[in-house]
Every structure is written in structure tokens, then in C-alpha cells.
Amino acid sequence: LDTDLVGNKDYINKAKECFGDTISKDSDGIWNITSGRGDSAKYKDLSTLNCGDKSDVNWLTIRMFILDYSTYEPMACLAGQDDACAELGFNGGASTSTQPAAVAAGGELYQDSSSMSCAAGTTDVGVHTGYHGGQPVNIKLCALPNMPSQSSESQPGSSYYVAGANGDALVNARVSGQYFALVQAAAKDGVVMRAQSTYRTMEHQQSICNQNTDCTSGSYTTVAKPGNSNHQMGLAIDFGKENNASAITKGDQWYNWLTANAANFGVKNYPVESWHWSATGN
């Protein structure tokens, strides 16, 4: 990467305004990115800043630098680098586990994440209501710009739409780095990841339950009881095929890639459904 380009103050300022990320050079002359996504004051109407400008090749290069860096951080955390885990917002570091700290800690996944930062490369869409054990929990939601989603919460115009999603997958800040890195890694292997469903509101989960006879009769194997779904905590993704027309199935390229690689990112399959993957496997 051209050091004069990445050190251009205009681009540094634009990256901070658009994404909340600070680009700086350390004492060894290495360029680093520090996420400032926990500061909600940075999240304005980004369309006025032309953050998605594709006509400026240099700006595109800076954006790719940010994306590549955000892929490196989760992988460094997985490798046991506590400072990388801290940068992603995982408490406790990774020194005692081969999995991201948020996953290893278990119960932390279901705690309030409203004060956490979204991982670098993802978009902070604010604090929303999640549910665990039937109880509401405040969670920070992050949109994954590298993963389109047909979920109602991601689609403008839907009654369940979460403002700022703009067609992107929505996940809890606690797992935003893991999912972002997973999708990036799959793309590098030629596997394009899409989502059928990610975060769900209580109203949406209730609607799904109402349309499922097992759920309405008290059997929750395929549709979770409202207030108890990992989708409602932003921890689960239902993966779809490239055009989102259908769910992935055992033996296809998406399922095979996830089976071989998802555990490296702290993501597990719910055995009953080939398409449903989450930070807990439920």
C-alpha cells in the first residue's frame, strides 16, 4: 500500500467521518486502524459525505485497506493476540482459548452490548432490543456491508426494517468481527455468502411462530419460541445461496465451506437446519 496515499490527511479524515476509524502510523512506521465506532456522535447521514464514492480509485484503495485490516484483527484474536481481541471489543482476551473471547465466555453473548463498538468494516446502526430467555436485552447492531441479506429487518420498506441496514446482514456487535471476517475469508475462496435471515425483532419472530403449527403448539425445534431465538440477539444467520432464492443445503458449496471453516470464526451449525449457523450452535 502506498504510504503517501494512506497517510493523506483528507482520506484519514474521511475514514474517520465515514466509519469512525482512525488511521495512524505507529512508532515502527506501520499503519494501523483504531475503531471509534462506539462513539454514536460519529454516525450521521453518511450519504452526505459520499462515503460510497466509487469514482475515486484512491478512496476505494483506502476502503479496501480498512476492510483487509478488519479481517486481520479477528484472525489475530483467534490466534491468541489479546490486543486484537480488545480492539474487536471481546473481553478477557484470547489467551485461554482458541475461540474468540466472546464465544469462549459463553454467557457474555447474551449480555447488554449497547456500549460495544461495531467491528472495523461494519456499520453501526444503533442500539435495539434483543431477547434472551424471554427477557429484553439492549444490543448494538452492526450491518455487514460484505453480506447482502433478504431479511425483512434489512430491507427498506419492510414493516420490520431497521434503519441503516440498507440491505446488509445485521448482527450483534459482540460477533460482528467474527461474521465479517468469515464472509471475507469465504469470498477469498470464491464462495459468495448471502443471508436469508439475521437479526429479528420480537414482532417478526412472533409472526413466524404464528405461521408454524409446531411453534404455536409448543414445539420449538424448527422455530424458536418468541423471546428465545438467537436471531433475536443478533447471534445467528440463516445462510442463503448466491441469489438468496433458497437456503443452503448439505453438500452444496456454501455448506461445505462453512463446515470446513466456520469453527475458525467461532460459528457453529444448528444440526436440525443446514442453513442456520450461530455463535452457540443453537
Structure characterization notes:
With 282 residues, the protein is α+β, with helices and mostly antiparallel strands. The chain contains 9 helices and 9 strands. It has helices at 3-6, 9-19, 57-78, 82-88, 101-104, 173-188, 202-210, 213-216, 253-261; strands spanning 21-25, 31-35, 123-132, 135-148, 168-172, 194-197, 236-240, 268-269, 276-278. Strands 6-7-9-8 form a 4-stranded antiparallel β-sheet, with helices on one face. A 3-stranded antiparallel β-sheet has the order 3-4-5, with helices on one face. Helix 3 (57-78) packs across helix 4 (82-88) and helix 3 packs across helix 6 (173-188). The termini are far apart. Residues 37-47 and 89-106 have low confidence and may be disordered.
